[in-house]
Amino acid sequence: MAVRFISIFTLVSCISILSACESGGSGANSEGTGGASGAGGGGSTQNPDDGTDGSTPDTGNGGDGSTGGSGGSDSSGGTTGGNTSDSGNGGTTDGGGATDSGGSTSDGGNTAGGGTTANDGGGTAGGTGGGGTTDDTGGGTTDGDDSGDGGTDPGTGGVVTIPASALFLATSEERQFYETTFQSDVTAMGPASVAGGQTAHDNLPAIGTLTYAGYMELLVGDGIASANVAAPATLVLKLEDLSIDGSATGFMGVTADENLIQQVVNYDGTILITNGSISEGLWGNAAVKLDIDGALDSGLNVFTVDGTLVGSLYGANAEGLRVRGTNTGLDGSMITTVDGNTGIIGVGTISALSQ
Where in this protein does the record put region Disordered (predicted)? Predict the structure, then answer.
């Protein structure tokens, strides 16, 4: 009987002790929900030594914190021991409740870093502290001053600067004159100079002088550079010896500059008209033959001509004169150069009317 009494007493004592242990441990286990899983108090088996009284700091070992941090909202060890800091060792995994030392005061993960700061028990840094990083209100490096420096170079505003051309470019007034007057006058002079048919050699006056004014046109090139130009020309026919002399100057034309932009260009230089003569032609006409020679400088290229032009006087009284020469030998002859290189194109024409 005595043995049975002792056994019952022993059984009751064990039950009391287990209740106390269960009371202390479950409270600690209910702490972790504020710590976003993995924070929590000290685990379900925490405080096996003296966890029955939560009124004082519970410094016992919390056992294996592997089950810690899944408890309720009173993250301080339950209703019995939750009013003071649960500084027990949260085990080797969840580290003892993170910064959730007071349960309702500091709710686990809401204080940056969770269990990494309030782990007095010696756990392994409380894991990730129950998600404390989600309350990272600092912002720090992601909220820095990104004002930057606007720079000191104002740029060119998209304006493209075209280098100055070496060509002798016409002024705006010269260009207007060339486009509105000069070209049309040169074109019109051709048919005007041959009006009335060829002049009969026998009808020429015996004495006197005939002065002709018109235009000389030249086309010179070597396949790389070319000049298609015209200039006012003046010729003087001395009837006593039927000789002709004169010159052409003030050449203008259109050509591409270094940037392949078409430009109206002035050509510096004079082409001399020499050795001109009047003779009776095959059909009795007053045939004309003369030489031209000189150089023209565009500022970018130098063109030279050395040729013989042939043609006739026109009109009943020799009112017109027209001669032509080419490098093909079809009409007269023409030798040209471009910057000292032999040209492959050479055509020269003079059309004029007596004054």
Answer: 23-159
**Alpha carbons 355 and 215: distance in angstroms, whole number:** 14
Domain 172-354 listed as CATH 2.60.40: no
Cα(353)–Cα(314) distance, integer angstroms:
9
Q: Which residues lie closer than 8 Å to 209 by C-beta, 6 or more apart? A: 236, 237, 238, 239
Residue 344: DSSP 8-state: S
For residue 220 the two structure tokens come to: 């010179």
Instruction: For residue range 226-264, list pLDDT tens digits in order.
Output: 999 999 999 999 999 999 999 999 999 999 999 999 999
**Which residue has tokens 């013989």?**
308
* Identity at 192, one-letter amino acid code: A
Closest CA to 163 of 255, 253, 257: 257
Report the length, in residues, of the chain: 355
The CA angle 233-235-241, to the nearest 5 degrees, is: 165
How many other CB atoms are there within 10 angstroms of residue 15's CB atom? Answer: 10
